[in-house]
Design brief:
528 residues; alpha/beta; 5-stranded mixed sheet; elongated; HemC; transferase; EC 2.5.1.61; Porphobilinogen_deaminase_C
Length: 528
């Protein structure tokens, strides 16, 4: 034990308290130690919220570099500040027994403001801000940065009603505000109240020394919380909370929460398992949230620091949002509004030899006008696999299906029985199909099954790619936006043909489905 263990730490009062705690524990076991205080970027940059500084682990990065450079042997951190993915070559060496994990509200006069419409609360944490606004939506939350001492001083010197702190931080430095409330309803940050010790992976002596001060129950709980955080891909930039506990009956429970920054949307999950069979709790908890729209909430949360890169001109479902690569920030909105028309029953109840249906909207309009049993369609020709499946389910067999209207027109000219066809279409349908048929002496009877209206919005400047699902969505987009240097991702050849009139770079999905367009984005985005 002749080696002196150099303990790296930030030089704030709280960080030094934590480092001295580790120092005392190691020395009680006979190890020699010395403290090496180091300033971090998080301490030096105080004019911006953490999430605007652009990186996670802002309080740990400087110490990581010092360790890899050989200047220190271990580093001591508030575990909630440590990124879930440690730098290569650095590992978790110990977790000390957890202290108070609660958030507390320190207030100046009385707590009556909590029942009032207007109040000002200070915090630099998006998680605390989101949960406070979820509970008190009319209150104002202002940013509060600095070490724990300076934050408390700012509370005293401003006209705020209160400020939120980690209870463990206040307790560790003996700062006990006169008026406090424990926020038992607020889910803490993953690993809040715990102290982590990290070391170099290849330093066996140091790792063995630190293992002696490890607290296993805290290690189990914080591992679950951080795994939950990792799966949701959160950091300082997302409002995520998690808390794991072990009961006297050796039951492990994990509660997780994800919110939008404004607190308006919130998803929670809680799972329990016997100790020893608890390893899947984080995954189950995170997947429960993701399956209920968590990926969409993550997109909203991270928009505060990362601008949208891909825009869909059709509203995407949460499951579809989840299909995008993690690094791609997506927004979506319907650029086309569809309303079915009332189709005369006199038309639909007559026997029709040849029918063309090019979208699911047409099927819906037909079914709203008459019952399927009243239809007498002999040969149905359609565009798209989903349209075909819908027709087969609700109307009857499909004679032939093509991926787009152009190919369907070619097929009909070659193989259709008879010289007349009834085309159920939109008011904004393209001319290609009826033109080709007319040129080949096939009479086209058009019936407007539904009305398509343009509903464009302005797309923000940061967007680099637009997802289109029909020529109409392109027309709608161009009413309020320009192509610029953006990439067009198209659901099929007909849409792509229209896109090439305006966009320099156009990609076409292999299969005409939304999911295929998403796959196209994943494969090509950023490779131009």
């Amino acid at each position: 034990m002749s080696k002196v263990i150099r303990i790296g730490t930030r030089d704030s009062e709280l960080a030094l308290w934590q480092a001295n705690t580790v120092k005392n524990k190691l020395e009680a076991l006979g190890h020699k130690t010395t403290l090496v205080p180091v300033k971090s970027t998080g301490d030096l940059v105080l004019d911006k919220p953490l999430y605007e500084l652009g990186i996670t682990g802002i309080f740990t990065k400087t110490l990581d570099v010092a360790m890899l450079n050989g200047d220190i042997d271990i580093a001591v951190h508030s575990m909630k500040d440590v990124p879930t993915a440690l730098p290569k070559g650095i590992v978790q060496a110990a977790v000390l027994e957890r202290a108070n994990f609660l958030d507390i509200l320190a207030f100046k006069k009385n707590e009556e403001f909590m029942g009032e419409r207007d109040a000002i609360i200070a915090t630099g944490s998006l998680r605390r801000k989101a949960q406070w606004l979820n509970r008190y939506p009319t209150h104002t939350v202002v940013d509060l940065r600095g070490n724990i001492n300076s934050r408390y001083e700012k509370l005293e010197n401003n006209d705020w009603n209160g400020a939120i702190f980690a209870a463990a931080g206040l307790e560790r430095i003996g700062l006990e505000p006169e008026n406090t409330i424990g926020l038992t309803w607020m889910v803490p940050a993953p690993a809040q109240g715990a102290i982590m010790v990290v070391a170099k992976e290849d330093d066996e002596f140091i790792r063995e020394a630190c293992a002696e001060i490890n607290h296993e129950p805290t290690e189990i709980c914080t591992k679950l919380e951080r795994e939950f955080l990792r799966i949701l891909e959160g950091g300082c930039s997302a409002p995520i909370g998690a808390l794991a506990t072990i009961s006297k009956e050796n039951e492990v429970s994990l509660k997780g929460v994800l919110l939008t920054v404004d607190g308006k949307k919130k998803l929670e999950a809680e799972f329990t398992a016997p100790l020893g069979k608890h390893s899947y709790l984080a995954k189950d908890c995170a997947n429960s949230i993701l399956s209920r729209g968590g990926k969409l909430l993550m997109t909203y949360a991270t928009d505060i620091v990362e601008n949208t890169k891909i825009f869909s001109t059709r509203t995407l479902t949460p499951d579809q949002i989840n299909l995008f690569d993690q690094s791609i920030k997506v927004k979506s909105e319907d650029f086309i509004k569809i309303s079915p028309n009332r189709i005369s029953s006199l038309i639909l109840k007559k026997e029709i030899q040849n029918v063309i249906i090019t979208s699911q909207n047409t099927v819906e309009a037909i079914l709203k006008s008459v019952s399927p049993e009243e239809l007498k369609f002999k040969n149905i020709y359609c565009v798209g696999g989903k349209t075909k499946r819908m027709i087969k389910r609700y109307i009857g067999p499909v004679k032939h299906q093509e991926k787009d209207a152009k190919n369907l027109a070619k097929y009909l000219v070659e193989y259709m029985e008879g010289t007349e066809v009834t085309y159920f279409c939109s008011n904004l349908r393209l001319d290609h199909l009826p033109t080709v048929l007319a040129e080949n002496n096939i009479k086209v009877r058009e019936i407007e099954a539904y009305t398509t209206k343009h509903a464009p919005t302005e797309v923000e400047d940061s967007v680099e790619g637009i997802m289109f699902y029909s020529p109409s969505t392109i027309t709608s987009y161009l009413l309020k936006n320009s192509p610029d240097n953006r990439v067009a991702y198209c659901i099929g050849d007909t849409t792509a043909e229209e896109a090439r009139k305006h966009f320099k770079t156009v990609y076409v999905a292999k299969i005409p489905t939304v999911e295929s367009v998403i796959d196209l984005v994943n494969q090509t985005y950023g490779k131009d």
